[in-house]
Design goal:
The protein is an alpha+beta fold and 566 residues long. It has 21 helices and 15 strands. Helix content is 51%, strand content 13%. It is globular and about 85 Å long.
């Protein structure tokens, strides 16, 4: 009894003991959560990243791959993906506490710090789920700490850490550019400091391997994030944004942050940067909702400046502190309940925390040791590989975005071999895919009427080491014209000047022309492409070009009959 009293006395008088205990408890809870909660589809995808390390990936920079590769060296099962995340968030919390630089900290302040940190829902999730956001949070905390020290003293040490943290941010997530840009806007005088320029130059040098990877692979990440993710505007994207932000940050905590932003002005240049990060991120992505759906977690980095500001002002404002102690504390009960329910089948499967292991085991029982071919989405192949350890790959299609599988091109390993097709529920004896075939073409006009005949010159190239058989017994191939409006796709038949029956490996067939009749479609701005269609999907073989279609009563403008171009 006396020993217990002494321990309590030590904790009460030494805030460091309490901080260490809370930190350990945080790690243990996340460790257990990581073990018992089923791996999500995206995590299975990143697990594949880690098995094939590179300087870049289609969707993200390489830091998340390094995390899963490290985790896989130490553990199996769920921890083979998540362990690095657990470690990173512990150090993220330590860095945030160091940024506060509390004078005369005590146990009361430690409790407030962890209370606020726990209240940020998405910050908690990235304490055990492996995503690019976990290292992004860590390196952003490192960047803010380095920046704060750099403002006080422009030493070479602080310059080095500033560069390393910016490098880590970019290698974690491209949103790093927004973090650095907003800090720069909050303190434009940084541009007059030579060592800040040196930090930026050193960062660019460290990023050269990634830029080289992008160049070699034709800048897939930049094209995807800047162009391919764009969608037609929907009011639902705009109006769902704010409710989603309330959800990921906790409505009670988010409300307190809004109060702080309105009531208080920034006291110093560093705090001004925190204001810019919060307001800038939230505003930027709300504007981005005009070009498509904004994922709620894209703004999770705001949890760090929110935590810093809310802690600081709560220590000064007794009413705000009272609000945090009561309303924010009570909200933690809902978070605890949600975390308890995550590993159970009670929550809907669409949340992606349950049901996958059993379904993939059923698929494995049908496929046996055969590689499994999925179409469209990367999730199916990633989940199957993670939960079974068996080979799987994806064929992209014109109605789905491309993924890292289009860079790996795993399907080329199985040409002419037996595979299992879940879409058909059976195995096939000789697999053939046409996804790597390239078609170059020129549209004669950019505006047509429904019913017009288009004469399109094109060439077709097979870059693989396997021949393409258009009359394949299991995977016959047809060349078609595709008209895409939003998510609706219409395929039209093509008549070739020289029918193609076979394309040998590394062969290019040029001096070709096709004739296709524009379908009876409604007026609109369409995307046009030529695609090779097999029984599984319509492949992405050529560029998407804009084509305006007018559907009115005027007589269609017919072109000359198909002529032999040889």
């Amino acid at each position: 009894m006396k020993r217990s009293t002494n321990i309590c006395g030590i904790i009460g008088s030494n805030w460091r003991w309490l901080f260490a205990i809370f930190l350990l408890a945080w790690f243990v809870v996340n460790f257990i959560q990581a073990m018992v909660t089923e791996v999500m589809s995206d995590e299975a995808y990143y697990f594949l990243y880690g098995e094939q390390l590179a300087w870049g990936y289609y969707d993200h920079p390489p830091m998340v791959a390094l995390m899963t590769a490290f985790s896989n060296l130490l553990f199996g099962g769920n921890l083979s993906v998540r362990f690095a995340t657990l470690i990173l968030q512990v150090f993220t919390l330590i860095l945030i506490w160091k940024i506060i630089e509390e004078k005369g900290p005590d146990t009361r302040k430690v409790v407030l710090f962890f209370l606020l940190a726990t209240s940020f829902i998405m910050f908690q999730v990235y304490g055990f789920v492996a995503t690019p956001d976990a290292p992004f949070l860590f390196f952003t905390a490192c960047f803010l700490l380095s920046y704060k020290k750099f403002l006080k003293e422009e030493s070479w040490d602080h310059t080095l850490w500033l560069s390393l943290s910016m490098t880590g941010m970019v290698y974690s997530k491209y949103h790093a550019v927004l973090v650095v840009g907003l800090i720069l806007l909050s303190n434009i005088r940084l541009l007059s400091r030579p060592k800040f320029w040196l930090a930026g130059l050193a960062t660019l040098l460290c990023l050269l391997p990634h830029f080289q990877w992008q160049f070699v692979n034709d800048f897939p990440s930049f094209k995807y994030h800047l162009s391919d993710r764009s969608r037609s505007f929907r009011w639902s994207y705009f109006f769902e944004y704010l409710p989603n932000q309330l959800a990921v940050f906790n409505p009670f905590t988010f409300g307190a942050v809004v109060y702080v932003l309105i009531k208080y002005k920034a006291r110093a240049i560093f705090e001004r940067g925190l204001y810019f990060l919060i307001i800038g991120f939230l505003t930027f992505f709300w504007i981005m909702s005009f070009r498509g759906h904004v994922e709620p977690h894209w703004t999770v980095i705001c949890s760090i400046p929110m935590l810093l500001l809310l802690y600081s002002r709560s220590m000064e404002n007794s009413k705000l502190l009272h609000y945090v102690r009561h309303w924010v504390t009570w909200s933690l009960l809902l978070i605890v309940i949600a975390r308890i329910l995550l590993p159970t089948p009670i929550l809907p499967e669409r949340l992606d925390f349950s049901g996958k292991k059993e379904k993939n085991a059923e698929l494995e029982a049908l496929a046996g040791d055969l590689p499994v071919v999925f179409t469209g989405s990367f999730q199916g192949a990633s989940k199957y590989h993670f939960f079974t350890g068996k080979e799987a790959f994806v064929l992209s299609a014109i109605d789905r975005r491309q993924t890292q599988f289009d860079i790996w091109q795993k399907e080329l390993q199985f040409q002419g071999k037996p595979v299992f097709v879940p879409q058909w529920g059976r195995a096939v004896e000789s697999f053939q895919s046409v996804n790597r075939v390239k078609i170059n073409y020129t549209l004669p006009r950019t505006e047509v009427q429904a019913g017009d005949t288009l004469m399109i010159p094109f060439e077709i190239h097979n870059p693989s080491t396997h021949a393409i058989d258009f009359g394949h017994p299991e995977f016959p191939v047809t060349l078609k014209a595709a008209y895409i409006l939003k998510r609706e796709i219409d395929l039209a038949d093509c008549l070739l000047s020289n029918p193609i029956s076979y394309i040998i490996a590394n062969q290019t067939i040029n001096k070709c022309q096709l004739m296709t009749i524009v379908p009876d479609l409604s007026s609109g701005e369409y995307q046009f492409t030529l695609t090779l269609v097999d029984p599984l999907s319509a492949a992405r073989n050529s560029a998407y070009l804009p084509l305006k279609i007018n559907a009115d009563s005027r007589t269609p403008l017919k072109q000359s009959p198909l002529a032999d171009t040889d």
